[in-house]
Amino acid sequence: MALGTCSARRAALACLLALLAPFAAAPARAAQCGGDFDTFLAAMGREAQAAGVSRAVVDQAFAGVSSDPAVLNFDRRQRYTFKKTFEEYAATRVVPARVKRARTLMQKNAALLDRVERQFGVPKELLMAIWTLESDNGTGDMGKLPVVRTIATLAHDCRRTELFQGELLAALKILQRGDLPLRDLIGAYAGEIGQTQFLPSSYIKYGVDYDGNGHVDLRHSVPDVLASTANLLKVNGWQRGAPFGEGTPNFEVMREWNRSVIYRKTMHLFAERLTE
Question: Which UniProt keywords apply (predicted)?
Fold first, then answer.
């Protein structure tokens, strides 16, 4: 994301959409929502080519794509607030097994985490908390839906068409750049991608090729995942060496990851557990 996102998949999408709601007022795009889906895709394809995406990439990405009713049904069921208290939510997320695994991975990736923290100023404990909460460090559910189909479905729907048209163009740019092949461009119910669940626009804006292979791979490359996550926070004003609990400027920066106070407090609590 996320932006990251809320994790706990339904809470994740709810918070993600709340986070991005202000951008839904962006200037109207050329493609008209509603109506014939293939006509809409054709208009989006023309817009993508005007933005520098090749015809070959557009044709490959849109081949055989249809609207996904399951995505629309899921989207319409969302509720945009947490129903649990912080204590109730954290008790289900900050559990001993997760903390133990995170500590083990901190040791395994100590040199990488130190390098990322030196460069971006974000504490390694917070990065580990985000990585764990979002996907259990890449071992959990990162989503199984084709991102192009998912986002095209949401863009065609008129509720937030401007927002998701922008995300669809960003997804095509990921393919254009060669960061991920189409077969790996899979994600969750709002198109979130990878081990810390970036929307395509965040992938493009904040993604860092930290393993030096020429691609930003947020599905498979742990260096890219951790550096990109830290970069998102740094770019949005993270203060190196400052606290990040509730009421601090850094806690507000964490809004760029997730607007929910409960989720941000859970991130902070998890990071604290890793220092004990």
Answer: Signal
| pLDDT of the residue at 6 | 42
On whether residue 3 sits in a domain, the answer given is no
134 annotated active-site = yes
User: Is 45 a member of any domain?
Assistant: yes
Q: Which pLDDT does position 35 carry in this prediction?
A: 94
The domain tally of the chain equals 1
Residue 76 lies inside a defined structural domain of this protein:
yes
pLDDT lower than 50: segments of the chain: 2-12, 14, 18, 21-28
DSSP the chain: --S---STHHHHHHHHHHHHGGGGGSPPPSSPSSS-HHHHHHHHHHHHHHTT--HHHHHHHHTT----HHHHHHHHT--SS--S-HHHHHHHHS-HHHHHHHHHHHHHTHHHHHHHHHHH---HHHHHHHHHHHHTTTTS----EEHHHHHHHHHHSTTSHHHHHHHHHHHHHHHHHTSS-GGG-EE-TT--BTTTTB-HHHHHHH----S-SSS--TTT-HHHHHHHHHHHHHHTT--TT---STTSHHHHHGGGT---HHHHHHHHHHHHHTT-
CA distances from 252 to 22, 217, 231, 260 (A): 17, 27, 16, 11
Tell me how far apart the alpha carbons of residues 192 and 203 are, in angstroms, rounded to a whole number: 9
Domain assignment present for 150: yes
Per residue in 19-77, pLDDT (tens digit) is 554 444 344 456 999 999 999 999 999 999 999 999 999 999 999 999 999 999 998 88
Q: What is the pLDDT of residue 21?
A: 46
Closest among 112, 113, 104, 114 to 136, alpha carbons compared: 104
